[in-house]
Amino acid sequence: xxxxxxxxxxxxxxxxxxxxxxxxxxxxxxxxxxxxxxxxxxxxxxxxxxxxxxxxxxxxxxxxxxxxxxxxxxxxxxxxxxxxxxxxxxxxxxxxxxxxxxxxxxxxxxxxxxxxxxxxxxxxxxxxxxxxxxxxxxxxxxxxxxxxxxxxxxxxxxxxxxxxxxxxxxxxxxxxxxxxxxxxxxxxxxxxxxxxxxxxxxxxxxxxxxxxxxxxxxxxxxxxxxxxxxxxxxxxxxxxxxxxxxxxxxxxxxxxxxxxxxxxxxxxxxxxxxxxxxxxxxxxxxxxxxxxxxxxxxxxxxxxxxxxxxxxxxxxxxxxxxxxxxxxxxxxxxxxxxxxxxxxxxxxxxxxxxxxxxxxxxxxxxxxxxxxxxxxxxxxxxxxxxxxxxxxxxxxxxxxxxxxxxxxxxxxxxx
Length: 415
Known about the structure:
By secondary structure, this protein is an alpha+beta fold. It folds into two domains: 2-208 and 322-414, Aminopeptidase (3-Layer(aba) Sandwich), CATH 3.40.630.10; 211-320, Alpha-Beta Plaits (2-Layer Sandwich). It has helices at 2-12, 31-45, 140-158, 186-189, 236-245, 286-307, 324-327, 331-343, 358-364, 388-414; strands at residues 51-52, 58-62, 73-78, 93-95, 103-106, 111-113, 129-131, 167-172, 193-197, 204-206, 211-220, 262-270, 274-283, 312-320, 349-350, 371-372, 376-377, 385-387. It has an eight-stranded mixed sheet, sandwiched between helices. It has a four-stranded antiparallel sheet with strand order 4-7-18-17. A four-stranded antiparallel sheet has the order 12-13-11-14.
């Protein structure tokens, strides 16, 4: 489906990278560039209530063409890309009929997308992939999700023979820095249940996500002339390294998988006098999530006893929680997605997601919102890619889910 691919390529050409530490909402003004384009395209489709709010979020609603009494379904995706790597000057390339071998992303810089390092690549032999040039993110996270939702909207607006109830759409900013739903407007989204489109490979279906937190660590030292530092200098960077060494080395991203959590040093800046550290704390189980935070606090207390009161200060910010137990209270939402996938010949892959998604925060705001695949993989890396056929299946699934709401009314009519 060339229109879907062209849509995706159009969206990744716009730099929407979010930024940690920004005091503005959204964190970067450039995210609104994509928001304005999406509103324009929605209006051109005939979705006449499309708008972008003061926080950069885009809302739109497609009215029912099949009468009343049909549950309103919603779909959401985020417009921003991660701060981990450059998000501008994207140079996407389509690899048709992928041969299953290593992919040269950048011949000049000798950047190879290796099947030895990424054996999952071989699954896509014979498929069509979109990759970058090895110097930036691609932006499949989450512009694949944005593209499939927009293509679904175009289809519903141009094919009135496809019956559906009310369909609501929301595109958010700042998901990658954990702030996408701070000002999320449930009244504008106005649906009975929803799906966030921020997943990975074909068939993946998430409603068991990490409890996510951030630990901000500040370490104070004592500055002295290096020639006269004996018994005077206290190097904050040394204390920071000592703090990190006291954490469990097995509980880091590189040594964990499945439902195993971690404490990840994401950022460190320092000099002799002051060092700042930012840790990501993650676990699917709340009890273990709390244990990881308490472990950091215990280390801080130990170092304060060793080096003096207030040498180490730790501040926690909980970003989101696991939506699993809340989603399980709405089995229809799970069964609905599984049935739709099976009807399209997609094998559902229900797995714990090793991350956080907009849907979790939306669920805790009171609207159940599990997460579905969009075709991308290797997000937050230079090896990010998306599979065109998987994106197409994601789009087909959205249309099918819209149609499936009619069955809910029919079931209610029979009861």
